[in-house]
Design a protein that fits this description.
The chain is built from 26 helices and 22 strands. Strand 19, helix 20 and strand 20 form a beta-alpha-beta unit. The N terminus is likely disordered. Belongs to the XFP family.
């Protein structure tokens, strides 16, 4: 055995054989409908009618996987493999089948000729599996269909996983994306004393779909300076000849694993607490490596033409069919698989034992490792409400104290983190700093607040990184919360898409165990971004979320502090959901006591009997509905005006916490039956609905309801500026005076006898406009308003 590489010539020959087997299985998935062992000459009938898949990145992925197997087995290392390049599905399917985890997971795809045929047929085939490394693939936590998130996922997985090495292959096309470019900075947050390690493997195969890759075309010195500037110590494995490349990769992996062990040992002994230069590998190999070098006079291997299917029209072109067979036989499958189609025993010598196989690691099926959060009693944090609306509090500040206790109660388990883009204190969750700090490995200065080497809070001014860290953390069996300004959560729209799609598929796979939900807290919301202006005013993330599968998404709009606590407690305990909670950080009336809040949140929506004056026997004249803290205040203020000026008008107040309750039960698990909906909202009375976001969403959720034609919604209609809080409501016609006018206009028979009241409401809006322009603040009766029962 060489002391330099830790490998013998026999080891390298075995790795090469394993690599050839994986390449053969990968190419077979793209092309073969049957005849998996090439027992007879290939015929057109053996070829799939539609050739779908991507060959270009696959041999490089197989190369890395085979070499990692050797290291894992020799060192008994725990390694999680993350596939960044898009469409790497053939490689991971091939490798997990070779190591046995695929057949253990899917008994219908055994390690024999029948199973190989099934493996080939199902790939990118109707009723089969996708071309990405999707949830169906054992050992995966990252789909790779949309590029840019692999490295953030890797670091999220490594947090609080001290014995784990996350090997993250980054495609050179992927490396051009903004999220990936920011992700290089994640090493400034990884603590070698308590976290695992991330091994980035930048795979430069030169091309994307049709263009050269940037990082593959800059001079070596520039690339090296870039990576070292990010804080890494790159090791280069470059070439084409398999024999040379195998030796170089083996040496590189031994070197970087040694470096990781040294870094962690020195940090954990207290010998060195400075930020290390973590090792990484730059692998430069041809795109479509080992595939056809030339087809129809055009170069394939090493060019963009190898990206997808190097040989097309195989069914109709005898020459292409001959070339395909020659290509497949170049891997010498007769040496790699026995007569029954099973991998020969020699290949099994490279496979790590049991759960150390990368397809079997429990870290890729995080629900198997998940432990329940220890939660504080809500009674310890609930605000006392002796009178409805008689006091005020700051909802997210109180929530911060609950999260502080969550951090403290789970400190020993180290399974909860709070992520945010420099907004934890701004969103008034800063009570958490009483028990933890912000994890930070960079330079610190005396003026810095709460920066520590090991903390439960991670703040970085990149919503992409916050989301990616949290997803990786959740998918590997932990819990967390992402707090963000509402308007800028849109930055992760696409990342949310991918996670929601992952969960939708994950929930259907019986072998994947439930994971903790992805929880968003959206604060500094549209109605209180009056000081920051139009750029900070956008409630549309809710609309985006509502497009996803009903079994996955939930949206909550708690109207006050106690309802926020109840919702947060529920969300932090939940599994396999994306929970979006929108809550304000400013002083808000306390509408419900703790027990009332718990009941109201359990119902999801309900009639506030104490706020209205319908007796429950006769139908109300009008239903005043609200969803969100600011809309609730305006509805309650409008109701108080109606009580004062139209005391005989029967008003019912309905508050909505769980937006999904508005949908029919056929459309969402939380949906109300038509009978329940009609009982609450009536079948024929005007419903005036003040809603936190864009008003058309309420119409979309209720369009099938009996009384939909009578539902009139007020909400944000893209009117904003730097102004006063109440003026934001006036600009969007959701203020109390406008709501009273709506009642007058829509309740039959009120118009003629309420002309003076309507004029008064119009005058109040006019007076408001003049007042704020003279005084720079809201009218005293608005600013100092409070509910009186």
């Amino acid at each position: 055995m060489s002391a330099q590489t830790g490998t013998t010539g026999a080891d390298l020959k075995l790795i090469d054989a394993y690599w050839r087997a994986a390449n053969y299985l990968s190419a077979g998935q793209i092309y073969l409908l049957d005849n998996p062992l090439l027992g007879t000459p290939l015929e057109a009938a053996n070829i799939k009618p539609r050739l779908l898949g991507h060959w270009g990145t696959t041999p490089g992925l197989n190369f890395v996987y085979a070499h990692l197997n050797r290291v894992i087995k020799q060192r008994e290392a725990e390694v999680l493999f993350i596939t960044g390049p898009g469409h790497g599905g053939p490689a991971l399917l091939a490798n997990t089948w070779l190591e046995g985890t695929y057949s253990e997971t899917y008994a219908e795809v055994p390690q024999d000729a029948r199973g190989m045929a099934k493996l080939f047929r199902q790939f990118s085939f109707p009723g089969g599996v996708p071309s990405h490394v999707a949830p169906e693939v054992p050992g995966s936590i990252h789909e790779g269909g949309e590029l840019g998130y692999s490295l953030a996922h890797a670091f999220g997985a490594a947090f609080d996983n001290p014995d784990l090495v996350v090997a993250c292959v980054i495609g050179d096309g992927e490396a051009e994306t903004g999220p990936l470019a920011a992700s290089w900075h994640a090493n400034k947050f990884l603590n070698p004393a308590q976290d695992g390690a991330v091994l980035p493997i930048l795979h430069l195969n030169g091309y994307k779909i049709a263009n050269p890759a940037l990082l593959a075309r800059i001079p070596h010195e520039e690339l090296d300076s870039l990576l070292r500037g990010y804080g890494y110590a790159p090791v280069y494995v470059e070439g084409h000849e398999p024999e040379v490349m195998h030796a170089a990769m083996a040496e590189a992996l031994d070197g970087v694993f040694d470096a990781i062990e040294r870094i962690q040992a020195r940090a954990r002994s207290g010998e060195d607490t400075t930020r290390p230069a973590w090792p990484m590998i730059v692998l430069r190999s041809p795109k479509g490596w080992t595939g056809p070098s030339e087809v129809d006079g055009l170069q394939i291997e090493g060019t963009w033409r190898a990206h997808q299917v190097p040989l097309s029209g195989v069914r109709d072109n005898p020459e292409h069919l001959r070339m395909l067979e020659q290509w497949l036989r170049s891997y010498r499958p007769e040496e790699l698989f026995d007569a029954n189609g099973a991998p020969v025993p020699e290949l099994g010598e490279l496979v790590p034992p049991g759960h150390l196989r990368m397809g079997a690691t429990p870290h890729a099926n995080g629900g198997t490792l998940l432990r329940d959060l220890r939660m504080p009693a809500l009674s310890e944090h609930a605000v006392a409400v002796p009178e409805h609306g008689g006091s005020t509090s700051e909802p997210t500040r109180v929530l911060g104290r609950l999260l502080r206790d969550v951090v403290e109660l789970n400190d020993a388990q180290r399974n909860f983190r709070l992520f945010g883009p420099d907004e934890t204190a701004s969103n008034r969750l800063d009570a958490v700093y009483e028990v933890t700090g912000k994890q930070w490995q960079g330079e610190t200065l005396p003026v810095d607040d709460h920066l520590v080497r090991a903390g439960r809070v991670v703040e970085v001014l990149s919503e992409h990184l916050c989301q990616g860290f949290l997803e990786g953390y959740l998918l590997t069996g932990r819990h967390g919360l992402f707090n963000c300004y509402e308007a800028f959560t849109h930055i992760v729209d696409s990342m949310f898409n991918q996670h929601a799609k992952w969960l939708g598929t994950h929930r259907k796979l019986g072998w994947r165990r439930p994971i903790a939900s992805l929880n968003y807290l959206l604060s500094s919301h549209v109605w209180r971004q009056d000081h920051n202006g139009f750029s900070h005013q956008d409630p549309g993330f809710i609309d985006h979320v509502m497009n996803k599968k009903a079994e996955v998404v939930r949206v909550y709009l708690p109207p006050d502090t106690n309802t926020l606590l109840s919702v947060a407690d529920h969300c932090l305990r939940s599994r396999d959901h994306v929970n979006v909670v929108v809550a304000g950080k400013n002083q808000t009336p306390d509408w419900l006591g703790p027990q009332e809040a718990a009941l109201h949140c359990a119902r999801g929506l309900g009639i506030w009997e104490w706020a209205g004056n319908d007796d429950g026997v006769e139908e109300p004249d009008v239903v005043m509905a609200c969803a969100g803290d600011a809309p609730t205040v305006e509805v309650m203020a409008a109701v108080s005006l109606l009580r004062e000026h139209l005391p005989s008008l029967r008003v019912r107040v309905v508050n909505v916490v769980d937006l999904m309750r508005l949908q029919p039960e056929s459309e969402h698990p939380h949906g109300l039956s038509d009978h329940e909906f009609d009982a609450i909202f009536t079948t024929d009375r005007p419903v005036l609905f003040a809603y936190h976001g864009y008003p058309w969403l309420i119409h979309r959720l209720t369009y099938r309801r009996t009384n939909h034609n009578n539902i009139h919604v007020r909400g944000y209609k893209e009117e904003g500026t730097t102004t006063t809080p109440f003026d934001m409501l006036v600009l969007n016609d959701m203020d109390r005076y406008r709501l009273v006018m709506d009642v007058i206009d829509r309740v039959p028979g009120l118009g003629p006898r309420t002309a003076r009241l309507r004029q008064l409401m119009t005058d109040q809006r006019t007076r408001h406009n003049a007042w704020i322009r003279e005084h720079g603040e809201d009218l005293p009766e608005v600013r100092d308003w409070s509910w009186r029962s």
